[in-house]
Amino acid sequence: MPRRNLAAQSLMLAIVFFASFQAQDLDARELRIDPERLIAVELAGVGLSASAGAPLVLLRHLETGDVVPIIIGLDQARAILMAMHGVEPPRPMTHDLASNMISALGASLQRVLVDELDGNTFLGMLELRIQGQEEPIRVDSRPSDALALAVRTGASIYVAPSVLVAGEDLDYEGLPNRQVVTALGITVVEAGQDERQALSLPDQPGVLVRRLVGAAARSDLEPGSLILKVNQSVVKTPMEFLEAVRNTEASSTVRIRYWQGDSEHELELAPSAGAGEPRRPVISA
Predict the structure, then answer these.
(1) Average pLDDT for residues 159-179, to the nearest whole number?
(2) Angle 143-153/94-104 helices, nearest 10 degrees?
(3) Is the domain covering 21-173 a CATH 3.10.690.10 domain?
(4) DSSP calls for 10-38
(5) 92 and which of 21, 51, 96, 231 could share a cystine (Cβ 3.0–4.6 Å)?
(6) At a CB cut-off of 8 Å and minimum separation 6, what does 227 contact?
(7) Phi-psi bin for 97: left (phi > 0), alpha (psi -120 to 50), beta?
(8) Calpha distance 41→61 (Å, rounded)
(9) What tens digit of pLDDT does each residue of 85-97 get?
């Protein structure tokens, strides 16, 4: 048998063997919390610790709007930023490979769970669904890797209350350049002159819409639009967009004023908007 065919068959056998695992075989541990107690959050972006300069992932509580930072590694921060910016490497990077493998095995990543802070270590899990199988498969994961996968797949993110409390005292600031932020399911970036000219956008302060998920994706807002205001606040940077959303009362709707086509439009979203599968294409950087 040709060596190439033998290698291909060996790879296929390995994939079939992996796919035949039962849920209990894949579980490296049990969830540390009742799944009903987990809280839905949105991955808002990547920032920096104001004191230490370490990278942070910013999680937005969908009910209260609070933004909680969690320290992550530089590699994971870079992977999250690449996905949020819509950068597609010429060859799959580690998290792209993992996402492709999950899809090739007939599964889908439904939820990312960050279920406990054990000492100084956050614990996480991937919750996978296989068509025709009633129970989900949960796989132990570092939360930072799981979050990098969530950005690529549109998976929902849930965290334990202890995780949200753990980051309350951390001060954060935006990245010095190429900021990218997600809030209400709307991913925005800085609107440079090249993008404005290419998309025929007006010379007004605003942020460029790159990607939409959930309720925002089902609205009339489209990638390539320019968000001008959130409520009454003019937003000049992605971090200002996040803060304007954050400052909205939980009982109120968020009013978004944006430029699309050749005129201004307005959209209202609930502060809890943000979860859901991507429904619009990413505008690549």
Answers:
(1) 83
(2) 60
(3) yes
(4) HHHHHHHHHHT--HHHH-SS--SS-GGG-
(5) 96
(6) 186, 188, 206, 207, 208, 209, 235, 241, 256, 257, 258
(7) alpha
(8) 5
(9) 888 888 888 888 8
Calpha distance 16→105 (Å, rounded)? 8
CA angle 199/201/203 to nearest 5° reads 145
Contact 181, 242 (CB under 8 A): yes
Helix axes 74-84, 94-104, angle to 10 degrees: 60
- In angstroms, the CA 215 to CA 267 distance is 11
Q: Give the whole-angstrom CA distance, residue 130 versus residue 103.
A: 10
Tokens of 107: 């599964």
Top-confidence residue, 16 or 54: 54
> In the CATH scheme, what is the code of domain 180-269?
2.30.42.60
> pTM to 2 decimals?
0.77
Residue extents of the structural domains in the chain: 21-173, 180-269
